[in-house]
Each structure stands twice: as C-alpha cells, then as structure tokens.
Amino acid sequence: MGSSTFSRSVLLPVSAADAFAWHERQGALERLIPPWEHIEVIERSGGISDGGRVVLRQHAGPASLLLEAHHFGYIPGKEFSDRMVRGPFSRWEHRHTFESRPEDGGSMLTDSIEYNLAGGALTSGYVQTQLKRMFAYRHAVTKADLDLWRQWAGLPRLRILVTGASGLVGRTLCPMLSTMGHQVIRLVRQAPAVEDEVDLPRLGYAGPIDAVVHLAGENVAGGRWTAERRRRIRESREQGTRALVAALGKLPSTPRIFLGASAVGFYGSRGDEICGEGDGPGKGFLSEVCQAWERETLLARAFGARVVCLRIGIVLSPAGGALGKLLPLFEAGLGGPIADGRMWMSWISIDDLAGTIIHSLMDEGLSGSVNAVAPEPVQNAEFARELGRVVQRPAMARVPAVALRAIYGQMAEETLLSSTRVQPAVLLERGYEFRHPKIAKAFCHVLGRSSRSSE
Fold first, then answer.
1. What is the mean pLDDT of residues 90-96?
2. Torsion 101-105-107-111 (CA) sign
3. Are residue 89 and residue 196 in the same domain, yes or no?
4. Where are the alpha helices (DSSP H) in 25-119?
5. Residue 91 CA to chain centroid, in angstroms?
6. Which residues contact 322 (CB under 8 A, 6 or more apart)?
7. 3-class SS at 272?
8. Bridging pattern class, strands 106-116 and 4-12
9. In this structure, are 193 and 142 located in the same domain?
C-alpha cells in the first residue's frame, strides 16, 4: 500500500528563529502532547538535532504502548524531522519547517507527515481525523505559548522551585516555564533522582532560587473526609507550607517571589453571591484550610518575597481532576447535572491556570490574593449541558444530592454541592488575557473536539 500524507500550517506571532528555539527547549514535547492522549515521556536524549531520541509510553486503560522516534534532517532555525522506529506505524516521518513571514508579522510553521499503516481506507480515514484533531491542538498551544513568551521576553529568566511538580497542574506548568526559558527545579519528598530535583534537607545546595511556586497538598477530593483524611489535608498545606517557608528563609539568598496555591473554597458556599478578592472567608472545613494555608504562605513576606496567594477554581483537564473523573461518564451518556444544577462552578482551563501562574511570577505589580478562575463561571446544569454537547452525548442523568451526601458526607457538601461564584478581578485589572474565557471553548480545547459540537 502507498504512503499516506498529512500537512497542516499555522501562522505564529514570532520570527522563525524564535519559533524554532521554542521547539528546541526542554518541555516543548510535553507541551505538544494532547492531554487526552495519556502519553508520558520516559526516555530522551540529544534534543531535536540529528541522532536525538525519544521514547514515549501511551496508556489505554490497563494496557500501554511504547513509541520510539529518532530525529534527523536538522537545519538550525529552519527545519527538523523525526522518524518512528517503534510503534503502530510501519513508516512515519514527521517534518517540521519554519518559514519567515515578516509581511504577516511572524513566521509559518508547517507539519508534514508521511506514514504507512495497514488497514486500508477505513483506517486511513481514522488516522487523518486523529491527526487533524492533534495538530489543531498542537498549533493552538504553540501559538498561545509563543504569545505569552513574547509578552515577557524582555524580562530576565528565573530559576524557579516548584513543589507538586508531578501533579496535574505541575505537569503542565513546568514544561511551559521551561519553553519560556526559565530553569525549573522540582522539590521532591524522596531522595533526588535527577539533576533538576532537590529535597528539603538539600535545598541549600540547589543554588540561588529566584521564585517559588508551591502547589503541593493532599488531594481534597480523594474520598470521604474521615478524621484522618481531614488531618492530612490540613497538615499537608499548613505544616508543609510552614516548613518550606522556614527552609527558604534560611538560604543565603532568599527567593524574591513566593506563589502559593490556595482555592476558591476560601469563600465557602455563597449561593448566587459574586465573590472577589476583597471578600472575606466563608464557613466550613475547606475555608478554614484555605485560610490557614494562606496565613502560612504570607509568612514568606518576612524574608522580603513578593507573595501571591492563588485561589484556584475547578481545573479543566482530561488528564485528572474533576473533568478527568467525569469524562468517562459523560462519554458513556451517563452524565448530567447534580441535584437542581443551580450551584455555581468557578472553573479555569489547565493552560490558563499555568498562564496565570506565569503572569503572577512575571508581573511585579501583582501581590496578595488572586482568583485563578475564568471570567465566566457557570451553573452546574450549564457545565453538564456544555460538556454533553462537546462530547456529543446526552447529559440528562441527574445525580440526587441525597445520594452524594450518603456516599461522601461533608466532602460532597463542600465540593460537589457547594455554590461558589468567583470573579478574577485582579487578573483582569493586571491585563491577563484568557485563552479560554468560555466553558465551551475550554472543553473543545482540552478534549480536542470541534467547536461545532458546542454550537
């Protein structure tokens, strides 16, 4: 059977040299892997230059598939290619070319693929559909990330310590930071295994740290809140932050920026009330945890750091979190609203959350409490309806509140049944431009679906 081909181009807002340099940086591959693919990088050497090698593992339920590609055809600033040597294709060659387009204000990236795969026209049609889906995502990410890089390109690059780097947010944030030219150091609990890791006892050997992004904390939605789980949730945030701030304060050169994660749970359940950064805390366990968390974070001011407490909403990514748990139900046609569906949900796409963190790091005029949510919160019924439209399944299976209370107790009351309507006033005032201000657009992006399905 002859080869099949695929080609797609995108106009980028930077020069060909800058676009090529972005692809050369650590983290670029991770940024380009769609979150619905469940692919991890397990080996890598040589970058994108000739002889470079990358091994990926793709997960599909309990099964997994190894993919290996080798790079060739490297022409600095102009093109590079990769050839699959292990995987489902008998032949796969992917060429990336970069062409200067000053008349259009930037450059053109073209991805061209030649492949062979047994299975005839039916299989070829499926592959073409998946390639269109994948490269629509890749090009949207590349263009938006380069826009963000361009915004802050004139400022010095930072050495950034990140806790919780292996979590849902960290897995997106760290590659985005690296492709912007920052150096990421991952704080780990076990003994460091690679060069860019450090544990708390060895923090003093990590060298100067410009900024800290503190994301670590026990999973709030991991199950029913027993007394032991409540203790772990609170201590992981309160005592964990206290220990980190104390260790940083003892360094010969202390960080000048400390960004600590918090959550919109700070505001408690407030019905239809619109909450901004100036509003006080609500009631309940989550609000108490967030208040304690932020108190410990603000102690970093004692060593002169600019401190940001990022109150994060529901993070949208199929790779984990609430959407990761809901997606299989909705794709099976078993999704729907919770109770009466009137609870407000303050959400943010995973890329906007990473973008918000970077904006908070780079904007010297930003400090204190910052709501990391999209500007248009939705009620639960709309959330369910839009997700159903995007995955093209009915979303009518209403979940009774009484059942959730019986199964999850207080955890259901303060998360699934809570109504928190939050506005990102500070981010909007400081000029952050959301990639996905509307929930339908966010779902389409993170799930790789056509916008037509949500019209």
1. 95
2. negative
3. no
4. 28-32
5. 32
6. 221, 314, 315, 316
7. coil
8. antiparallel
9. no
Q: How far, in Å, CA of 362 to CA of 263, rounded? A: 21
d(CA 275, CA 424): 9
Which among 309, 383, 319, 378 is positioned nearest to 351, based on CA atoms? Answer: 319
Mean pLDDT of 421-440: 98
Same domain, 391 and 361: yes
**Residue 426 exposed, middle or buried by CB count within 10 Å (0-12, 13-18, 19+):** buried
231 and 371 both lie in a single domain: yes
Alpha-carbon torsion (152, 154, 155, 159), positive or negative: positive
Asked whether residue 2 carries a pLDDT value surpassing 70, the answer given is no
Please tell me the total count of domains within the chain. 2
d(CA 280, CA 346): 17
Q: What pTM does this model have?
A: 0.95
* Residue 310 and residue 259 share a domain: yes
Q: Cα(174)–Cα(180) distance, rounded to whole angstroms?
A: 10
Instruction: Assess whether 213 and 147 both reside in one domain.
Output: no
405 and 434: one domain?
yes
385 and 267 share a domain?
yes
Crossing angle, helix 439-447 and helix 380-391, to 10 degrees? 40
pLDDT at 120 over 80: no
In sequence order, what DSSP letters do the residues of 165-199 get, joined into one string? Answer: TTSHHHHHHHHHHHHTTPEEEEE-SS---STTEE-
Q: How far is CA 198 from CA 195, 207, 270, 348, in A?
A: 8, 10, 41, 30
Half-sphere exposure in the Cβ direction for 307 (13 Å, CA)? 22
The domain that contains 201 carries what CATH number? Answer: 3.40.50.720
Q: What pairing do the DSSP bridges indicate for beta strands 368-372 and 63-75?
A: unpaired
Confidence of residue 342 (pLDDT cuts 50, 70, 90): very high
Residue after which a domain boundary falls, among 152, 178, 199:
152
- Amino acid found at 123: T
C-alpha span between 73 and 81 (Å, rounded): 6
Q: By residue range, what is the domain housing residue 118?
A: 4-152
49-59 pLDDT, tens digit per residue, is 999 999 999 98
The pLDDT mean for the chain works out to: 94
* Domain CATH code at residue 77: 3.30.530.20
Decide which of 129, 152, 175 is a domain's last residue: 152
